[in-house]
Amino acid sequence: xxxxxxxxxxxxxxxxxxxxxxxxxxxxxxxxxxxxxxxxxxxxxxxxxxxxxxxxxxxxxxxxxxxxxxxxxxxxxxxxxxxxxxxxxxxxxxxxxxxxxxxxxxxxxxxxxxxxxxxxxxxxxxxxxxxxxxxxxxxxxxxxxxxxxxxxxxxxxxxxxxxxxxxxxxxxxxxxxxxxxxxxxxxxxxxxxxxxxxxxxxxxxxxxxxxxxxxxxxxxxxxxxxxxxxxxxxxxxxxxxxxxxxxxxxxxxxxxxxxxxxxxxxxxxxxxxxxxxxxxxxxxxxxxxxxxxxxxxxxxxxxxxxxxxxxxxxxxxxxxxxxxxxxxxxxxxxxx
Amino acid sequence: xxxxxxxxxxxxxxxxxxxxxxxxxxxxxxxxxxxxxxxxxxxxxxxxxxxxxxxxxxxxxxxxxxxxxxxxxxxxxxxxxxxxxxxxxxxxxxxxxxxxxxxxxxxxxxxxxxxxxxxxxxxxxxxxxxxxxxxxxxxxxxxxxxxxxxxxxxxxxxxxxxxxxxxxxxxxxxxxxxxxxxxxxxxxxxxxxxxxxxxxxxxxxxxxxxxxxxxxxxxxxxxxxxxxxxxxxxxxxxxxxxxxxxxxxxxxxxxxxxxxxxxxxxxxxxxxxxxxxxxxxxxxxxxxxxxxxxxxxxxxxxxxxxxxxxxxxxxxxxxxxxxxxxxxxxxxxxxxxxxxxxxxxxxxxxxxxxxxxxxxxxxxxxxxxxxxxxxxxxxxxxxxxxxxxxxxxxxxxxxxxxxxxxxxxxxxxxxxxxxxxxxxxxxxxxxxxxxxxxxxxxxxxxxxxxxxxxxxxxxxxxxxxxxxxxxxxxxxxxxxxxxxxxxxxxxxxxxxxxxxxxxxxxxxxxxxxxxxxxxxxxxxxxxxxxxxxxxxxxxxxxxxxxxxxxxxxxxxxxxxxxxxxxxxxxxxxxxxxxxxxxxxxxxxxxxxxxxxxxxxxxxxxxxxxxxxxxxxxxxxxxxxxxxxxxxxxxxxxxxxxxxxxxxxxxxxxxxxxxxxxxxxxxxxxxxxxxxxxxxxxxxxxxxxxxxxxxxxxxxxxxxxxxxxxxxxxxxxxxxxxxxxxxxxxxxxx
Lengths: 336, 733
Description:
- Chain A is an alpha/beta fold.
- Chain A has 12 helices and 13 strands.
- In chain A, α2 packs across α10.
- Chain B folds into 3 domains: 5-219, no CATH class; 229-236 and 256-575, no CATH class; 608-731, no CATH class.
- Chain B has a 5-stranded antiparallel sheet with strand order 7-8-5-1-12, with helices on one face. In chain B, strands 6-2-11-13-14 form a 5-stranded antiparallel sheet. Chain B has a 3-stranded parallel sheet with strand order 10-9-15.
- The two termini of chain B are 49 Å apart.
- Chain A binds chain B through residues 10, 237, 239, 241, 243-244, 286-292, 295, 320, 324, 327-328, 331-335, and chain B through 636, 639-640, 643, 653, 655-661, 680-682, 684-687, 690, 732-733.
């Protein structure tokens, strides 16, 4: 499917991946104002081949964000049926086939053919994922984990890029089907979005017209295969030292042993965290992961995977406290 | 079912502690069955506590029920000895054993069970429980109170036979108990914590007992006061009152005669001094008199210590000073000239256990000399006394003249002045009239007659103690004649003085010579404090004329504890090493500790200096490291030196922060740090197969840049101080 060959030069590839991240970041910054942190995490997840759960209120710009991301990625295989961007609004009456696609009988050819659903896209915005029934959620989450959908016993692979941005509203919980912790585990990051700064909000208003007329057309886009290549580059060439592994495992263990946590983080979260750390390092122009990346990503990766003990509600504080010794050990090891 | 081993362990230990406590408590007052009963009772009681606590009984009901059951149970337990049939059945020994064992068992189960049940419900009962355990545990050890460091025998004797001073060990037991109690009451039941707590507390207690002089005998018995100490201390504090001419003067400061003996009042008499005899000497009348103070000046109302300086010059006015400058007369003794055929020089060493305002000495002291305190642990001071002791019988003194022909008229009148009460002379004459004609003019015979008369007529009683009125002696003598030694001493003095014989009242200690137990050490107790009359005979000096009434309602002072006397004697004989010249026989734990601490302190000092030096060297080496050494570790060394520079001015990475974060936080002032940090992180965490090492010169440039940036933003004094501090680099993490 992907025919791009990987050039041998490590440095060039890393530079290209870095450039790609920069390009995407610029476009998103242009489209969304005052969301630098979210954009950073979103791109990290994209480059790390993970999915993102945004927890926010309506009108915070999540559709704009996801759409801008979809727009930024040029579909260099226009002949296939996979589009750049799809948005699915989850409702209680949605059925799994509504998102995966259905097999229909074509009277012209006299045979059944598969009509892909909205999941067949590079970027999928799964809006208010907690509003739909667990059945649909399960289909969605299977697609996220396996990168394929199964309809009528036939598996249809999704795009290699397939990147889901799911959202849920933290306030309006009536009539929802909250995602269990096990399903939270499928998301690399859960990002809580707060209201943006005053200046940024002013900027949004000032630039609204301009952005509506020309949504970043003057900025360069990146191709889908370039993103996939960047992913591979990052995975192969950004170095994760053994000490980082040690630190991650120690962190996870101390979180599990903490009296403030009733269920600790999974081993899968640590495995998923590695590409995220690599992507994060690359986005900061490094070809190696440092403690800084670990400290930065740990709350986003761990917070939604833990169950806190009764009476404890600040997950990031718990994580900070639990991971401090391991972080300190890692940091100290660099002076020996 | 899962067994909570921690809980099981806790229960077992608690039960063992209670069992042991009751067994130990029973041991000192019961027979072996009682010990066994106590142990089982405590053990089972503790284990039953939680079960009782789980019942639905309310706590007051529980406690009241326990008490009620206890009464019934104890009555039942006593049956084997009370019921004739049972006692007959068992035989006396078995009956007693069974009764005692049952009593301890039932009492233990009920007491501990109810108490522990209450503790399980309300933690504050823990205090009561602990107090009872402690009480039971220390009962057998409590016999050493009141300065009896020779007891309990089972504890002290083995130590003493090894040459160990038992006091530190007694203290150690106390410290151990206190430490255990503290740990228990704090309740940090976690194996490691408890061990640490216990260790720390023990070390603390050990240091306290070893280094503070709190373990002298009087600290063991803090209440005691030697005879008359109160009054004498008052006098020491202020100059003696001026002589009051008006006998009826109402504003005259009250001078109390010596306090009476305290014997029989507060239980055990307490040791006050230990006298070592260097010459074998037993007085003819069987009593040693140790004089501390005299009262010879009649101030118009009563006898007070001399303030004129003319009389009583044989009584030392202060303690002998230590050291070579000590003169024989240095303590103010002007011994009376004596007939050497009648006296013998007796050398003694007095080791005061309780501080006295004035030295005591065997009659009649002629010379006092300070010696090194043989054991500052038990004695407050020690001095040698030479006494011209009168040997032989009083009859040998017959025919001696009273007073001294060398005395001036002033001295004569000083020693013979009496109250202006004609009754004294009349009574004295009546008494003397009973003498045979040939003895009637003999001063000694007269004095002895007075003594005999008082002994016959008077009644010794400690109930009669009123002495603060000016005519107390007259009321005693011409009244019911019921009084104690001070009364008798004064009465005898006044009567003898009326006859023209110089006399005075002396106070101090009188001890029965038998209580020396043929040894050379004599322990003086506070119960030995005494007052007596002394008369002056030419050629002999002051002779005690002690009135011992035939009728008495008080018991004589008890003998001192023979073991204690022997032990303290052994301690006192170990003289200061410089004077004895031979190696010390006794091993003193305290000295050992002191020595060890001294060595440790010196060692610590040396270590400190060495530590500072080493820190300096380390600092310099690390600071210069970027300029030397192999290329391989240059980045690390430069980065470390950079961090050292920042640590000098007090900038160190907070715990838990990453290096990048630290560099970023300082970024605006110390840009070079970020660069160096990145170099180091790339080297440390980067791909070892694709190393990218900066040039040495580039590295040094950034290092120097950092130095420049520090100089720019940190004031000179701060940098200077940081440079001097050798330890800053130790805080670099």
